[in-house]
Design goal:
Blueprint lengths: L2 H5 L5 E5 L4 E4 L17 E4 L6 E5 L13 E5 L6 E3 L4 E2 L4 E6 L7 H8 L4 H4 L3 H6 L5 E5 L4 H47 L9 E3 L6 E5 L13 E4 L1 H4 L6 E2 L4 E3 L1 H5 L2 E3 L4 E4 L1 E2 L8 E4 L5 E3 L3 E6 L3 H7 L3 H7 L9 E2 L2 H4 L3 E3 L3 H44 L6 E2 L1
Parallel strand pairs: 1-23, 3-7, 12-19, 13-18
Antiparallel strand pairs: 1-9, 2-8, 3-4, 5-6, 5-8, 10-22, 11-20, 12-14, 15-19, 16-18, 16-20, 17-21
Helix pairs in contact: 5-11
Length: about 400
């Protein structure tokens, strides 16, 4: 017999209305009044979506005391339920709260874990529809006529899932730290290999006619994509799809469109000159394909006589970003003009030295990518393992269910 079978041996399961065991509410009276957030303050301000903790406030009135009365929080925009057992305020009423009606009959933590087994959209409903019929949703309750035994079973399931949650979180944290350390080590060696004393290696403006020039991209938009034809790179793909270099494109345009487009050649560096954040701004990919490709607006390409990968690796360094920052304009949308990039200085060692550095960094990149992918898969597997056992513990035999 499985663990769940033993736990539920001889126990009748009934699907009861969720509204009989918990209450649904909007946290209107816990809304923060001022937006003066600081890490120096004590009380977290919760918001809808993935951000969740928006900041911290020093307001003392209207705080929800979740440290004594835990609550389940969700919002109108996601299906991610969050267990909150610390005091808080909220930014808006977009979030919703589920609280316990009677902990002697149903554990709120048990309800929380059960809610997370529901399919996307909370049992297939749109979130707002789910809210409207919240109280009528059915919750599996073991032996509801014997509250003491029922609560004991619920708490045993919660205990196991709490343990899995703790172990999964601990392992994920360790793997994430290892992944971060690995990337930090790679970044360190890249910085060292691409840092030269100006007395030993000449540093020239990238727009210097002896080494290269920047060419603005054309009017290519996503609506111009075709299933086949001439390869093209859209600026948004540079920081979502491509790595340091590529010899094939994700997208294409027609031959007719390509005739009037801005065309990049082998060795050109294609650069995103627009982004929503400074980190992605000027993300670059070296084009190493044999065919010429079209480049979109909000991007430019750098035609030069340096090693293409050497330039691409340089664009990842802090010395490049340090020179880039003073040229950034815009508030919500961040931009760098191609004419400004011409002023950024790049070290120009010999062709042999450029190739030596590229060979070393290529090996580091392959190793780092391999380790990163392995750690990321391990984290994903641990999460799936946790979800598997959660489903097992909260999936009751059909023949045991009596509505």
């Amino acid at each position: 017999m499985s663990f769940l079978d033993k736990l539920l041996e001889g126990v009748e399961i009934k699907w009861k209305s969720l509204g009989d065991y918990s209450s649904y509410d909007q946290p209107t009276k816990y809304r923060v009044k001022f937006k003066d957030y600081s890490d120096r303050f004590k009380t977290p301000v919760l918001t809808a979506g993935k951000t969740f903790i928006l900041g911290y406030t020093d307001e003392t009135e209207g705080i929800y005391n979740a440290s004594d009365n835990p609550v389940i929080i969700f919002d109108d925009f996601t299906t991610a339920n969050k267990w909150v057992d610390f005091d808080f305020k909220v930014k808006s009423s977009a979030m919703k709260m589920i609280t316990s009606k009677d902990e002697s009959k149903a554990s709120l933590k048990y309800i929380f874990y059960w809610l997370n087994t529901l399919s996307s959209g909370l049992d297939g409903d749109h979130k707002r529809q789910w809210i409207s019929n919240y109280a009528n949703k059915k919750l599996p309750i073991p032996c509801p006529n014997n509250p003491e035994k029922s609560l004991k079973i619920q708490k045993e399931i919660v205990r196991i899932l709490d343990t899995f949650t703790e172990l999964t979180t601990e392992l994920t944290t360790e793997l994430s730290a290892e992944l971060k350390a690995n990337k930090k080590q790679y970044n360190y060696y890249r910085e060292q290999l691409l840092s030269f004393d100006e007395s030993e290696v000449e540093h020239l403006p990238m727009g210097n006619e002896s080494i290269g020039k920047f060419i603005r991209g054309g009017g290519l938009q996503k609506k111009d994509f075709t299933d086949s034809g001439v390869g093209c790179i859209h600026y948004g793909q540079i920081y979502t799809h491509y790595g340091i270099f590529t010899n094939n494109t994700k997208s294409f345009v027609s031959k007719e469109f390509a005739k009037k487009a801005r065309i990049a050649k082998y060795g050109d560096l294609v650069i995103a000159t627009t982004s929503e954040n400074d980190e992605d701004l000027c993300k670059a990919v070296a084009w190493l394909g044999k065919e010429e490709i079209a480049v979109s607006s909000d991007a430019c390409f750098y035609r030069h006589n340096l090693n293409p990968k050497f330039v691409a690796y340089f664009f990842q360094t802090e010395q490049f970003h340090k020179q880039k920052r003073p040229f950034i304009t815009g508030a919500k949308v961040r931009r760098v003009n191609a004419s400004k990039l011409e002023k950024i200085k790049i070290p120009v060692p010999s062709k042999e030295e450029q190739e030596r550095i590229v060979n070393i960094l290529d090996k580091f990149d392959i190793l780092t990518t391999s380790i990163s992918e392995g750690l990321s898969k391990e984290i994903e597997l641990r999460k799936k393992q946790y979800e598997y056992y959660r489903e097992k513990l909260l999936s009751f035999p059909i023949d045991a269910v009596k509505v």
